[in-house]
């Protein structure tokens, strides 16, 4: 599955636009990650615990979006974006979305 953040894919031609696709996940922190993250943040620098949580959330949302696109018959997603919103303290929604298309080389 070709995924690009641009509205076209150099070297490819969009032959059919299928529509909006999205993938969503909702993740929460836990007491242990909050404790480790709190200690890391007091020391300064990269807070690895929260980086892993963010990366896992994005990967899940992206995979859901790809599955949605494949179910529609797409072989590419253009204009792909991520959004994240805090639903409540410690609970975050991550959304991956874009336009499902069929592309051909050329």
Structure write-up:
The structure is a single chain. This protein has 2 helices and 4 strands. The chain is elongated. It has helices at 31-43, 48-72; strands at residues 2-3, 12-28, 76-88, 91-105. The mean pLDDT is 87. With 106 residues, the chain is α+β, with helices and mostly antiparallel strands. 36% of the residues lie in helices and 44% in strands.
Top keywords for this entry?
single chain; 106 residues; alpha+beta; four-stranded mixed sheet; 44% strand
Order of helices and strands: EEHHEE
Structural category: alpha+beta
Shape: elongated
Can you summarize the main beta sheet? 4 strands, mixed
Q: Low-confidence parts lasting 5 or more residues at pLDDT below 50?
A: none
Residue-averaged pLDDT, rounded? 87
In whole angstroms, the N-to-C terminal distance is 17 Å
Query: What is the number of helical segments per DSSP (H or I, 4+ residues)?
Result: 2
Proportion in helices: 25-40%
* Residue share in β-strands: 35-45%
What does the secondary structure layout of this molecule look like, with pairings?
Blueprint: E1 2-3, E2 12-28, H1 31-43, H2 48-72, E3 76-88, E4 91-105
Parallel strand pairs: 1-3
Antiparallel strand pairs: 2-4, 3-4
At a glance:
The protein is built from 2 helices and 4 strands.
